[in-house]
Structures are given as C-alpha cells and as structure tokens.
Design a protein that fits this description.
Elements lengths: L3 E5 L12 H14 L3 E4 L11 H15 L5 E4 L5 H14 L3 E5 L8 H14 L4 E5 L1 H4 L5 H7 L5 E6 L4 H10 L5 E4 L5 H6 L4 E4 L6 H12 L3 H17 L7 H9 L19 H12 L1
Parallel strand pairs: 1-2, 1-8, 2-3, 3-4, 4-5, 5-6, 6-7, 7-8
C-alpha cells in the first residue's frame, strides 16, 4: 500500500503544447529528492483530458521507465467510456505502472449501479491494483459510500481518492472498509484531517510546487502528530487556496513556470493564469516557505 504524499503530477509542455520530456525528468528527480511517496501520472492535473490516447500512454511509460522503481507510479487511466478505461488501464499495466487511478465516468452521469458495473468491468479486465477517484465537482457524478464499500470487496480495487472535502464522509469510508483498503485525500485543504481520521495519504496538487512540505505534512499526520501537522498545514493553507484561483492545473503550472522549473506550455481550452492572480500565488508561496 502506498502511503504519504502522492503528487498529482503536471505534464510539462513546450509553448506549442508538445510534451517537454526533459522538464518531466527534472520534475521526477525533484520528487525523488523531496520525499514524495509516489507519482500520480496523467490525472486531471496532468491534463489527461487533452492528451491523445497515444500521448497518455507514452507519458505513463516514460515515467515508469525513467523512475525505474525509485518511486511507484499511480497512472491515471479513467475515462467516461468503459472500453476506453479498460484500454488505458491495460496499457498502463503493460507499461509497468504499480497501480491505476480511475475517475468516475464524467459527463454521461451514470447511476450508482452504472458506476459499480463500470469499475467492476475494468477490475475484471485488468489485474493491476486500482484506486477509485471521486471528484463530483469536476465530473457531475458523485459515487456514494455504499457503492465504494461494495466495490472495495473486489480484490484489485485497493483504494479511493476522495476529493469531496467531506471529512465525515471519509471517516465513514474508513470505518466501513477493511484496513487494507486505502482512503486517500484528493483535496489539499482537508488532507490533514482526512489522514488523521485514518486516511493513508494525499494525492496532491500542492505537492507539485512544495513537495517537501506536503511530504512532511503527510508524514506527521500519518504519525498522529496533530500539533506538528497543524503547524505545517497553516503554512500551506494560503497556497492550497491560491492553486485553485482558476481551474487546476492553470495556477500550479504557472507557479512552476514562474520559478523556472517548467515552461509555460498548457493546452487549450486551458489558458495561462490571469495576471490579476500572479501576486496572490507568489505571496502564498512565500508564506509556505517562510
């Protein structure tokens, strides 16, 4: 089981939108050095929605090959068509990904029965460990805890990324699922509380820009040290807010480019962060690092 800070990694791009492989290597090296527990490749933050299927698979394989076992790779392979999710998950497994992260099917708004059958079909088709991902604010579908508990009984469904920000709901999941089913936060602002409630880590946007701090927060929370974790969390609070001033990953890619870590490439329909937000992001970074 992966525990700790799992970065929801951006996909660095050149100005023309092509993948910047050299910058990707720099990011992976940075996370190895910073104590990040695992790499979340090509999820929402990695602009999975605008990568072609071949590009999607290529980025996952590149991360696996470059890391060569130094960090596990949690590959984003969700889709709103079950056949496509199976295809992406199989490609990630063939590439050597340690596990796959599958978002609820977006836009077509399946029922709870449809969600169960979708994830069951992917799990039965590909033996790789699979982590569910519930983010109703982006997908327009909410997977209920009853559905998650039922899916958790399938052997290779091993966890969930809960991005609802609802700690009571997360506590209910932790209480109702076996100890070997991992509940991860998908919401940086409430990650500390979820981990203290029994969660196993945070699949984090903020870890892209301050990976050591997020790793420290997760470590302290996993150890049950509320006081020390709260001190780190207070330093991160403004940054957690600033990185969602516009749709993720717009602010975090701008922050990384501002610091010279990656270029400014981002794919339409996403655009560069509006100038009016620049000072707020920079100020939040300064607070986090103070």
């Amino acid at each position: 089981m992966i525990t700790g800070s799992i970065v929801a990694l951006v996909t660095p791009m050149h100005a023309d939108g092509s993948v910047d492989w050299a910058a990707l290597e720099r990011l992976l090296d940075m996370h190895i050095a910073a104590g990040t527990a695992a790499i979340g490749a090509v999820g929402t933050t990695g602009e999975s929605a605008t990568l072609s299927v071949p590009e999607h698979c290529e980025v996952i394989k590149y991360c696996v090959d470059y890391l060569a076992g130094r960090l596990p790779v949690l590959a984003g392979t969700g889709a709103n068509a079950t056949w496509e999710a199976i295809e992406l998950t199989r490609a990630a497994a063939d590439a050597g990904a340690d596990a796959c992260l599958l978002v609820t099917p977006y836009y077509n708004r399946p029922t709870q029965r449809g969600l169960y059958e979708h994830f069951k079909a992917v799990a039965e088709a590909v033996a790789v460990p699979q982590v569910l991902y519930n983010v109703p604010g982006r997908t327009a579908v909410d997977m209920h805890n009853d559905t998650v508990v039922k899916l958790a009984q399938i052997d290779n469904i091993v966890g969930i990324k809960d991005a609802t920000g609802d700690i009571a709901r997360a506590r209910d999941l932790v209480a109702r699922c076996d100890a070997d089913f991992a509940v991860y936060s998908g919401d940086d602002a409430t990650a500390m509380e979820l981990i203290l409630a029994g969660g196993k880590g945070n699949i984090s946007v903020t870890a892209n820009i301050v990976p050591q701090l997020v790793a420290e927060l997760c470590s302290l929370a996993l150890a049950g040290d509320r006081e020390a974790a709260s001190a780190v969390n207070a330093r991160l609070a403004a940054l957690n807010r600033a990185l969602f001033l516009e749709a993720n990953p717009i602010p975090v890619k701008w922050a990384l480019a501002h610091e010279g870590v990656i270029g400014e490439g981002i794919r339409l329909p996403l655009t560069r962060l509006d100038d009016k937000y620049h000072a707020e992001v920079v100020a939040a970074l300064e607070v986090a690092r103070s």
